[in-house]
Structures are given as C-alpha cells and as structure tokens.
Design a protein that fits this description.
Helix content: 25-40%
Oligomer: single chain
Shape: elongated
Distance between the termini: 84 Å
Bound molecules: adenosine-5'-diphosphate, magnesium ion
Number of helices: 18
Structural class: alpha+beta
Strand order of the largest sheet: 5-4-3-6-2-1-7-8
Largest sheet: 8 strands, mixed
Radius of gyration: 30 Å
C-alpha cells in the first residue's frame, strides 16, 4: 500500500541528508555565528559531539520573532531573492540548518540582541518549540544541540567512535581558526579546555597557535595572483617536512572550508619531486576568486565546490607553491630557534561563566614568542619562477673540506653548512637531464652491451625504447630475448644498465593509471631521477677541492637546490647560535 510520509518523517529524512555527524552541526552553527558578526565563538562538546554540542557567540542575536522563526524550514535573513546567490557574502542562504538540527537533536536557542533589555530561550523538540522563557543574558546567541539523532535511532548507529568524531571536530575547528584569524575561537571537550585562540592578524600567527612546533618551524608563506584574478595565499611546509597522511591539507574557497581531491593533487604537483615518496606537506591554502566562477551550491553540506575553470585554479595553486619553494633559502629550511608557545594556555576562567564575553580576553593571553622571526616575506610573487641567485650565493663560502667522504663542509655566514655530495650531484644531474635531455652528448659504444631478458619483458620495454633514445640511451632489440645497447650519454657511462632496465620494468608493471600520457610522464620522471641517482658521485667518493667547487657552483644554478629528486635534503645549516650553545658560550 502506498501512503504519503508524515511531514515529520519527511523533515527527518531531509535533515539526515544535511547532517551526518556532529561536526556537520558544529559547522552550520559556527557559520551562523560568523554570519551574525561574532568576534568570539566558543564551541563546547561532549563525547565527540554525540551527546552535546553547545555554541556560544557574541554576534547580533535575534529578535524574539526571528528566534521563533529561525527553526522553520527555508527561513533565512540572508538571501532575499535567488539573484543574490552569486554575490552572497554569508555562509548561509538555504535557511535549512536550524530546521534540520532541530529535527535530529534536542535543541535550545538562547539569544539576545545587543540593545534589547532581555533575551529569550526556546526549547525545541522534533522541530517544534515546546517552551519559551524570557531571560537575562549577554548579547549574542547560545545554541545547544543534545543527543544527536535521538529522533532517528537508525542513524545513530552510523556514528563513529568518539575519537573519530572528535577528530573531525578538531579539523573543522582548526579550519575555522585558519580562515578567520580575526575571530577568537575556543574549543572545549568534556569540560576540558582544548584550544583557546584569541584573535590575531595573520595566518602565520594562527599556525603558531594551532600547529606543533615541528611544523611551524618549517612554514613558508605562499602568495600569488594570476592574470585571471585568482588569488592564492596561505602557508605550506618546506621540503624538509613530511607526514604520512593528507591531514595537513586545508583549502578555503572565498573563505569557505572545502574538501577537494583535485586541489590536493595540485599541491603535490607544486612540490614536484621535492618530497620523499609517500610524504605529504601541511598546506593551508586560501583561494579567492570571482564569486561567479565558483558554485558552492553543489551539495547540501556545502563541503564541496565546483569551479567554472578548475584547471586555472589548480594551475595557480601548483605555481604558487612552486614559486615559494624556489625562493626558499637554506636559512629558512632549518628547524631554528625553539620558541616557547604560550598560546595553548588553558582558559584561566570558570567555564560557562555568565560574563564570559565581557572579560578582557586579550589581556589574559599575551603571546611571548618575540624572539621568533618568521622568515618568508609576505609579498606577491610573480607567476614566472624567479632565480634564487641573489638569495644564496653558496659559491662564495669558503670550503672547509670533506667530511666522512660524504659531506662538503662550508663556512657559511650563519654557521656551518653541510652539503650531501650525492644528493647535491643528483639534483644537478636531474635538472640537466630534464632540461637538456635532447641535447646530451652521446658516445657510441665500441663494444655494444648485450642484455638478456625474457621475451615478455622485452615486449614491455619496447614501448619505452624511444623514451630511452630521447635520453641518449640507444637500444635495439637483438633477437628474441636480448637487447643491444649501442650508445650512452657521456654522464651515464658508468651507470649499471641492467639495474636501470630492471627498475624500468618494475615501474611499468606497477603502473596502474589508465591514462597513457600520465603513465609516460611518471615513468619519464622516474627514469630521469634514477639516471641522476646512478650517475651521481656516491657517498664515500673522495672529492678534490676543485671537484667540490664545481659541484657547489652547479648546485647553485639549479632551480631547486634544497632537495634531491627523491626529496632528501641536499644541504643542512648548523646555526652558529646552536654551535655556541653546545660549547656553552651562550645560555
Ligand atoms: P541560513 O544560515 O541559511 O540563513 P539557518 O537555518 O542556519 O539558515 O539560520 C536561519 C536564520 O537564523 C539565519 O538566517 C539567521 O537570521 C538566524 N540565525 C541563526 N543562527 C544565528 C546566530 N548565531 N546569531 C544570529 N542569528 C542567527
Ligand atoms: Mg546557516
């Protein structure tokens, strides 16, 4: 028998689509607080938000009729007509969030407008106001959402562990802090203060508040504006930092926190091959573009976005990151002065204090990280990569000598500079191969090298013989199971070719991508890196001063002098400051 669902059920189903987990509720409520002009927002949750979520803000508050109206579906003060949608400066516009939350939780709204004498508290169950009372309170709004999915038990089962839900909340909290440095955010879990982040002026400072010192010491700032008016700003970690997950990625499109795989890919392209395999950076990227070039109306949770010109955006991100990395100097690449973080100081005030927002917040939390100077200049970098020559002229430093037949030691104005001879040479060769592969000097072999492989392997390799030839390695198929190498690039005379071909076979068979262009690109990249690696001087090779000088000179002219093609650092600066500390010359 067909029957029409009750209105209550329809609304529960609709609500379930917008809200899947506690973090979604928090997102909607905090966005409302920001839309209401709040400068301080406190987020307090219990059990990863599963049993209680409470958001308190010092925003505009609502009038009594507005408060009653706010939980109606499609009730909004933000969008007056559909035409405004493209220019909207607020997060909200659907008028849906409060309605949905009121259907899946037990909700209360307490609100007071700034000039009003009194506020109002509404208690709501299953979307209807069951009681209201006039009360005195600070101006602003407090919304509590208890027992998420108490009305939809089937849904409740799908909630993850407290730890997982809490993790989502933590990410979201950081995202809000990053995109709104000027707002004071507070996060409390099971009555324990977790983060207290007073307002600041820059993203860099926000990072200092929120991220661990081992990350902040690696941060660089990113800034680029394209001809098409896409503005990319943010912070990224340098080549010496790497983590094993993508949890350090934060993207904001016109201030809205979004998740987008393509943007993450673009970030990785920007790093090119300067990170170790399976290593990911921290990247907090703000994308500002014409509101008409982005559609945030694509899904109800507004977590994803659609770009009108996605390629432009991705290109801009990759370029911005590339530029920043190319402009980094060795002094910026070291974990430097350990500075004391005082931002974490737990709230020194009773929780739920009625006069919370009237306290002088700033005076309680004085940042004391004065000695730390952030290196990267916050200027706008042009789209063409600039040379790093003016920044670090390592060729002028005195060579002290070679240590362990592996490191070249240099007298750097700021300390002792160590260069890994193999990594450095690898980088030099890699860039030479990548730019001049067509013009490498090739020597014909008087006695061609014969390599025996299986018929199957030869068939696999056959498609790549052209690529090898382009790189100066001339190979032809000789009989059914043999390859004949007839010429090699001068630099690769000593390269063990059997090993190289074996590597090539492994890459080919491991490659899973469907897109042939992609495969060839990846394999080319690997081939170049491997050629560079195998042809480079090794650790343990003794170098003459002349050789060291030449190596340093060449390294200096590379575009990316700080890491080898596999992402290991090429150089390391031991700061005078740290040396003096070791010798107890300074405290
Ligand atoms: P939307 O944000 O899309 O307008 P919501 O359901 O999230 O829809 O909120 C409905 C309305 O309630 C908002 O348009 C706003 O007028 C009001 N409102 C919600 N939260 C707050 C708040 N924290 N402070 C002031 N007004 C609020
Ligand atoms: Mg809203």
């Amino acid at each position: 028998m067909i029957r029409i669902l009750s209105l209550q059920d329809i609304q529960k189903i609709a609500a379930g689509q917008v809200i899947e987990r506690p973090a979604h509720i928090i997102k909607e409520l905090v966005e409302n607080s920001i839309d209401a002009g709040a400068t301080c927002i406190e987020i307090s949750v219990h059990d990863g938000g599963k049993s209680r979520i409470k958001i308190t803000d010092n925003g505009s508050g609502m009038s009594f009729p507005d408060a009653r109206m706010s939980i109606q579906k499609h009730a909004t003060s933000k969008l007056k007509s559909f035409d405004e949608l493209a220019h909207l400066a607020t997060f909200g516009f659907r008028g849906e969030a409060l309605a949905c939350i009121s259907h899946v939780t037990n909700m209360t709204i307490a609100t007071k407008q700034k000039d009003a004498l009194e506020g109002i508290e509404l208690i709501i169950q299953e979307g209807s106001i069951i009681s209201e009372k006039i009360m005195s309170k600070n101006h602003g709004t407090t919304i509590t959402a208890d027992n998420i999915f108490c009305t939809i038990p089937a849904r409740k089962k799908f909630l993850k562990t407290t730890a997982t839900e809490w993790n989502q909340i933590l990410m979201l909290f950081k995202a809000f802090c990053f995109s709104y440095p000027s707002i004071h955010f507070i996060l409390i879990h099971n009555d324990a203060p977790i983060f207290n982040c007073p307002s600041l002026t820059s993203l860099q400072d926000r990072c200092d508040q929120l991220l661990e010192t081992n990350i902040t010491s690696h941060l660089l700032s990113v800034s680029l504006t394209t001809e098409t008016d896409i503005k990319i700003t943010g912070c990224i970690t340098n080549q010496q930092y790497g983590r094993y997950d993508r949890a350090g990625f934060y993207f904001f499109v016109n201030k809205r926190y979004v998740k987008n795989y393509q943007l993450a890919q673009a970030v990785m392209r920007g790093y090119n091959n300067t990170l170790r395999p399976q290593n990911y950076p921290v990247a907090i990227i703000d994308i500002t573009l014409h509101p008409e070039h982005v559609d945030s109306n694509t899904n109800p949770k507004k977590e994803e976005v659609a770009f009108l010109y996605p390629h432009r955006v991705e290109q801009a991100i990759a370029q911005a990151i590339k530029n920043t990395l190319l402009n980094t100097s060795i002094t910026q690449l070291n974990e430097t002065i350990a500075y004391k973080k005082t931002f974490y100081t737990p709230l020194n005030m009773p929780l739920n204090a009625p006069h919370f927002f009237e306290e002088k917040e700033q005076s309680v939390f004085v940042p004391q990280h004065i000695e730390f100077t952030k290196p990267a200049p916050d200027h706008c970098i042009s789209e063409t990569p600039t040379s790093i020559t003016e920044q670090i002229d390592i060729t002028t430093y005195k060579i002290i000598g070679q240590s362990l037949q592996t490191y070249i030691l240099l007298d750097h104005p700021e300390g002792l500079l160590m260069i890994d001879q193999h990594a450095a040479h690898e980088r030099i060769l890699y860039e030479e191969i990548a730019t001049h592969f067509n013009a490498t000097e090739v020597v014909p072999l008087l006695f061609p090298i014969i390599i025996t492989l299986t018929f199957n392997d030869i068939q696999l390799l056959e498609n790549y013989l052209v690529l090898l030839a382009q790189h100066g390695i001339m190979i032809d198929v000789f009989g059914k199971e043999q390859l004949r190498i007839t010429a090699l690039p001068v630099y690769a005379k000593e390269v063990p070719l059997q090993e190289l071909l074996d590597d090539l076979l492994i890459w080919i068979t491991k490659e899973t991508s469907e897109n042939l262009d992609d495969v060839v690109k990846k394999i080319t990249e690997k081939l170049r890196a491997q050629l560079a690696c195998k042809a480079a001087v090794k650790a343990g090779d003794e170098l003459t001063v002349a050789k060291m000088q030449k190596l340093i000179q060449k390294l200096h002219t590379t575009k990316n002098a700080h890491s080898c093609p596999h992402g290991r650092p090429t150089q390391w600066l031991l700061f005078t400051h740290d040396i003096e500390k070791k010798f107890k010359r300074i405290a």
